[in-house]
What we know:
Elements: H1 8-17, H2 19-36, H3 40-59, H4 63-75, H5 88-91, H6 93-97, E1 103-108, H7 117-122, H8 124-133, H9 144-154, E2 155-166, H10 172-177, H11 179-184, E3 187-197, E4 205-213, E5 220-222, E6 225-227, E7 253-255, E8 265-266, H12 268-277, E9 285-289, H13 291-296, E10 304-307, H14 314-317, H15 321-330, H16 332-335, H17 341-345, H18 355-360, E11 366-371, E12 380-383, E13 387-388, E14 392-395, H19 400-407, H20 409-418, E15 420-422, E16 425-427, H21 430-433, H22 447-467, H23 471-479, H24 486-505, H25 509-523, H26 539-567
Parallel strand pairs: 1-2, 3-5, 9-13
Antiparallel strand pairs: 2-4, 3-4, 5-6, 7-14, 8-10, 9-10, 11-12, 11-14, 15-16
Helix pairs in contact: 2-3, 2-4, 3-4, 19-22, 22-24, 24-25
Amino acid sequence: xxxxxxxxxxxxxxxxxxxxxxxxxxxxxxxxxxxxxxxxxxxxxxxxxxxxxxxxxxxxxxxxxxxxxxxxxxxxxxxxxxxxxxxxxxxxxxxxxxxxxxxxxxxxxxxxxxxxxxxxxxxxxxxxxxxxxxxxxxxxxxxxxxxxxxxxxxxxxxxxxxxxxxxxxxxxxxxxxxxxxxxxxxxxxxxxxxxxxxxxxxxxxxxxxxxxxxxxxxxxxxxxxxxxxxxxxxxxxxxxxxxxxxxxxxxxxxxxxxxxxxxxxxxxxxxxxxxxxxxxxxxxxxxxxxxxxxxxxxxxxxxxxxxxxxxxxxxxxxxxxxxxxxxxxxxxxxxxxxxxxxxxxxxxxxxxxxxxxxxxxxxxxxxxxxxxxxxxxxxxxxxxxxxxxxxxxxxxxxxxxxxxxxxxxxxxxxxxxxxxxxxxxxxxxxxxxxxxxxxxxxxxxxxxxxxxxxxxxxxxxxxxxxxxxxxxxxxxxxxxxxxxxxxxxxxxxxxxxxxxxxxxxxxxxxxxxxxxxxxxxxxxxxxxxxxxxxxxxxxxxxxxxxxxxxxxxxxxxxxxxxxxxxxxxxxxx
Length: 573
């Protein structure tokens, strides 16, 4: 590459002899302008300036303008992280010069790189570039979705792509960034395996996805079975809509506390020593429950304690001298250099105290909790007076009827369909999995649900304590088709009871009668995949149930819109 500061004759020769190189430099310069600035308005202004004040004069032979373009283009390699443009049309001119332009096929294994890790690794401007190039994308999408979008755009009509990719490609934001737009643009998924084991050493699940760009691909196969159609979620066709959040579920779920480091944490011995010396300081020392305690402990009780100054001014917190001395020593030094002003100035408080959560559960003895990421979707009632970490979701319910609905396979199926995943484990995001979920009408007043939830809860607690394992260990046994122990058989029967009670609460007695037979067939031996073993309903039954739940979600959302319009009518024009 020629140095932009070198002899004008060299630069002029470059521009005079290589139309391809001129086009490459202009393209590189346009990208350089994007990565050199923040904000859409500033980028547009600089791009317009580049086009009129630099590109046009350079094309007319202005050596100074050509030098500017060269500096911009060569400067990209020095950008941190380095930006190395690749212009497909310039690298493969024959592919795009033909009448039916584009590639015939793409085959690949795009990188798995989830959500906000993209910004951390490549910078915010790279994330901005992705969102600009692929309209409708979500910042939380896996990087693999953008590879699908780019490959599809480069295909000719009738071309195909086949990718082995993360199984999150069919989930939540990644689906709406990748496969969703492909199908809306005329793509057809003609074969897919929704979830398969990865051949490598990483503990991940992958999907196999084959897409045709336009035209009829003929027979479609999903997990080896011939189907009429395959949706963006890599499932059989059902209701042609997407679940939306329901206002009736607002302020019933919360992420736990981000306390901002381990400096606030105490062992049981440290807590006891402080309370013996200063009993009044017990008021600002709380049990702390994390996801590990929740899923691994038979008792599901906090294993440690945490200093909690939430809601206190510095002067008020300093009344607890021993606790304050610990926070001043362990927390203040790191907070003093925090980027956020609020955290520097309010260093004795948690990063995010979740005041709304504790206001919502005030006075309750118990609350429902589930882990954000875990091998299984599990809910349990735990004591409400605890600091719940942000690896847990907390729900304002304290009754067994709510436990019955959320722990039933009805909700599990909904959650697994609408969740994203981390490695092989589902990620339960309340905004996607809970706020969209249409509960049965008046479920908290159902004695059948309450009885089913109580019996299941009591049996599950007995099983965990007797087996000395937590929820993950218990459900490993529960879903293992070779496990025939009496306690697991009882728990399976009670779980089937949860399912029947939940389906009956919706009024779907036909599904309630069918569900037990379907589950028993799976229990006796079905397609069980490892390492994530899961006894589940067959696909046809699951799709029917999901279709009904989606329809109910839409009816509830429509009723909420009508009620809102009645209360807040549009002003006359």
